[in-house]
C-alpha cells in the first residue's frame, strides 16, 4: 500500500534521446545523455523528447465529501468490524455461592476404572 501511495504522489519525468530514429538513451528524473554526434550541423539527426506525469498532491480525504449512503455504510462497517475484536467479560458464575457436594469416596479409585 505504501508503494502505491508513493508511486501515485511522485511526479515522473521521462527523457529520451533519439538519434536517426532509434532510441539511444532513456532516463527517469534526469536529462538523457546524448549520443556524442555533433549538434552543430545545420540539420541535426538527433532529437530529445521528454514528458512529465504529474503526481497527485491532494491526499486529504474529508468525511464531508461522502454522500449520506456512503457515510452510513462507513460508520456501520467500522462499528461491526470493531465489535469482532471486543473482548467479552468473564461470564457470570451462577452457582458461585454454593459449595460442591462432599466427596465421600473416590469411585474411580475404588473401582480402578480410569478414562484414558
TrEMBL record:
This is Uncharacterized protein. It comes from the Bacteria. It comes from [Muricauda] lutisoli. Pfam families: DUF8199. InterPro entries: DUF8199 (IPR058512), HYC_CC_PP (IPR058060).
Amino acid at each position: 500500500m505504501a508503494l502505491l501511495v508513493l508511486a501515485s504522489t511522485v511526479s515522473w519525468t521521462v527523457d529520451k534521446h533519439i538519434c536517426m530514429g532509434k532510441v539511444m538513451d532513456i532516463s527517469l528524473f534526469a536529462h538523457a545523455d546524448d549520443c556524442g554526434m555533433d549538434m552543430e550541423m545545420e540539420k541535426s539527426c538527433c532529437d530529445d523528447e521528454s514528458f512529465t506525469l504529474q503526481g497527485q498532491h491532494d491526499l486529504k480525504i474529508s468525511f464531508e465529501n461522502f454522500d449520506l449512503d456512503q457515510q452510513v455504510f462507513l460508520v456501520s462497517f467500522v462499528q461491526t468490524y470493531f465489535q469482532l475484536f471486543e473482548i467479552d467479560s468473564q461470564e457470570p458464575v451462577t452457582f458461585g455461592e454454593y459449595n460442591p457436594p462432599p466427596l465421600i469416596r473416590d469411585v474411580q479409585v475404588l473401582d480402578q476404572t480410569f478414562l484414558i
